[in-house]
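# step 3/5: fold
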Amino acid sequence: MASFGKKVFDELYVHLSGLDHLDDAEQQQRIVDALGWMPLTSGHRPNVAKLNTKTGRVSLLAYKDFDEDSFPELAASWIFAPGSAEKPSYRTYADSLNPPILHRKELLVPATHPGREGWVRLTATAEMLGLFQDTTAIGFKLNWERLISIRGYRLVGNDFLPVGNETYSDPVASWQFDGQVQRHLTALTRSSLSAPVQLLFRHGLLPPGSTMFDYGCGRGGDVNGLTAEGFAAHGWDPHFAADQPIFEADVVNLGFVVNVIEDPAERIDAIHNAFKLARRVMSIAVMLHGSDSVGRPFRDGFITSRNTFQKYFTQAEFKDYIEQVLHQEAFMAGPGVAFVFSDKDSEQRFHTGRFRSRGVAARLLATRTPRVRVTREPREQLVKPPNSPRPSHAEVKFMKAKMLLDSLWATALDLGRMPEPDEVANLDEIESRIDSLGKAVRLLGRHYDQTLLAAAATTRSDDLRLYLAAQQFSRHPAYRQLEPRLQRDIKAFFGDYRTAQASGLRLLLDAADPTQLLEACQRASTAGLGWLEDGHSLQLHVSMVDRLPALLRAYIACALILWDAISEVQLVKIHIGSGKLTLMEYDDFDTSPIPLLRRRIKVNVRKLDYDLFEYGTREHPKPLLYRKSRYLHEDYPGYAEQLAFDDGLETTDIVGESNFGPPPERLSEQLESRRLAVVGMRLQRSELIPDLDQTCGANFTFRSFIECGETQQRLALKNVPLNPATYNALYDLATQVLDPVVDYFGAIRLTYGFCSHELGKHISRRVAPKLDQHAALELTPAQKLICDRGGAACDFYVEHEDMTEVADWIINNAPFDRLYLYGADRPIHVSYCTLGSRQAFRMVGTKTGKLIPRRYGD
C-alpha cells in the first residue's frame, strides 16, 4: 500500500515530486514509463500522476499553479491505456468554463513537502464549513465556487472569508456582452415563463425594448413575468382576457392554442390572425405525441378526461402544417415550438445565427483573461506612499470609462470585429462619456488584448463559412439582399462575397475527406468536445455542436438537410470513414443518469438518404445509455453529478469494457446483487430486504452470516436482520475483507456472524453487543444503533493455516476496522466499516484465564 497519495475508488493520485517515496516499485515504474513518452511541445508539463490500482491505467495530469492555488485547476491530461505507455489520449481544458479542480492536495505529497502543513489547515477549514459533506459535484470549479458562496463565504488566497454586507467584484466577470445576457432573465423566471418564450430569449428574438403580444394568453403567466422584467407585454384570451385590446407587437406568441381548438377552420384563422400582428416574428407551440397522449378520439384529435380537446402533432407534421397554412418557412426551435418570421431581415439574422457559435465573448474572457490573485497585505502597506506619482488626466479618464469600454469590448468579441454605430446598444452614453465611438475603438486597440479579438474573428469567419456552405443547397441570395450585419461580416472576414462563397464551398469539400474529418474529430476530442471511439467515430451532446471545428459542423449541417428535427436530438455521432451521421433521441435525458434510447436516425451524407430506427417494442426494447458523461462537456448542467454516477457504476464492473451494458431489468438485478440502486441521479445503497439466499460477495450468501453460529444452529432461532443497512454492511464485510482472504488462502469457515437482539439474549460469554459489531446496523426498540461503531463483524477460521499469518495478511492488505487474534489455531474476529480504524489486537491470557487485548505487534 502507498505511503502517501490520495485514493479515490481505485485511483491513486500522487504528486510527481514524491515519486521516489512511492513504496510499490511496479507502480513507480509505470509512471516513469509514461513520463518517458511525454512530448516536449504540449505546452503543459504534468505534475500529478493518477494510477488505477485495479487496471494499471496511468494518467498524467497538469494542474495550473499547484503550489500557489488553494484548489488548482486541471489544465491538461494524458491518459495511457492499461499496460501501455504509448500514444495517450490528450485533453486540454484551456477553453473550459468549469474545469476539474483538486481538493485535499496535501494527500498527494510526502510529509516533508514544505507547503503541506498549510494545505492541511485549509482542508480542515473546508471540512469545518461543511464543504466536503457531499463530494458529488465539488470536483469542478463552478460547482465548488457556488457551494462556497451558498455557505456564506468566498475564497481569497488560502482563506475562506465570510461574505458580509460589502460588495466585491470579480475582475474576470466584470464585462458585459449582448449575446446571451437574456439567460439570467430566463433563469430568474424559469418557473413562470413558458417554453416558447424561453426559446425566444435563448435565440435573442426578444431583446430589451421589444414589445410582445400573447395571443391566447390564458391566465397571463408570460405577460405578467415579462412585464415584471420591464417589457411592454400584453395579451388577449377569449376566456380569461376577452376585454383586452388586440394590437401589433414586435413578437407575438401563440403558445399551446392551436392544439386546443377543435374546429380545423378556426384553428387556421387563429394562426393567420396571430401572424398578422407580428412585426418581426411569431412563436407558435403545440402538444406533440407522447406516452401521455391519451383521450377519446374526436374529429382530428382527442377529448380528454377533463372534456378538453387536444390535437397532437409530430414534429414533422407540425412544421408541414404551419408552412401549408402561412406559406412561410417554419424554423423548428424546440420540440413542438416553431418560429415564423414576418420581417425577412430578422429571418436572415436568425438563420445565420443557427450557424453562429454561442457565447464567444463570454468564453474568451472567462478562459483567456489572466486571473487576478488577491493577496492580503499588511495594513500599513495599503497606505499610499506620499511621493507616488499621480495618475495622468488620460489615465483617470480611461478608468472612469472602463465599464463602458468593457461592454464595448465584449460586443466586439461577440462580433469578431469592431462594431458599427447601430450595433452598439449604449452608443449615446459612449459618445457622451468618451466623445465618440471612434475614440472608444482606438482605446480598445490600445488597452485591450487584441489576440482575443483575433481568436473571435477566426470563430466568426468559420461561422460565416458554415452558413455559406449550407447556402450551397438552396438559392443563393444576392449580396444586396443580405442583411446589413452579414454584409459587414463578409467584408471584414473575406473582403468580398465571391471569396466568401468559395470558402464555404471549400469547407464542404473538406468535410467529405475522411483524413481531414479524423483530424478535426481528434481536435474536438482534445478539447473535451465528445468521445472519440478508436478513431472511427466521435459522439457528443448536441449542445456542443456549435463549438466543434467548422469542418465537423459542415458535415453535420449536410446531414441535417435530410433530417432537420434536431431539436428532439440529444446525441450526435459522426462516423468518420463511412460518411454517415447518427442522431439519437432519448427519454428523460437530463433527469436520468442512464436514459433510454427512443429513436435513432442514421443519415448517409454521401447518398443523401437516412434510416430510422424506433425502439420500445418487444422485438426492439429501448437500450440504456451508459457512461453518459463521456458525451457531455464539464460546462453542461449536471455534468459533475453525472460523472460521479458513472464513476460509481464503473467500480461495479457491471458495464465492463463494452459500451453496451445490461438491459434495464438485468441492471436492476446486478445492482441489487451489489446492494446498490439508482435513486434520481445518484447511485446509492439499496434499501431493500434481500432474499437470504441472495449472493453476498463472491463466496457467500446472506444466510452464510445468519446461520453460522453455534448458538443459532442449536436453538434454530430466526436471527434475521430487520434493517436494510445491515445487509449492506454484511456485503461490505464480505467483499472488502473476506473475499480477498478466500482469493489468497482458499476457503474459510464462518464460526460466528450476524447476531440479532434476540440471539444476543442466549449468548452470555465473551460478547459485547455495544462494541463487537456483530449486530451490524440493527436498531434497539428505541430506534438507536445497538453498536454505534457501524459496519459488521464475523469470526472465521481457515483450515490448515496459521491464523497469525492470516491476521498479518489482513493487516497489510485489507481495509478492515478492528481485528482480534485469539491464537494461531483459533478463529479471527474481524470487522469492516467505511471509516475503518485499522486497529488490530492480540488476545493474551492472564493467570486467571481472562483474555486481555494487547496492541498487535507490541
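# step 4/5: annotate
The chain has four domains: 6-162, 183-342, 512-561+570-685, 702-855.
# step 5/5: archive (pending)
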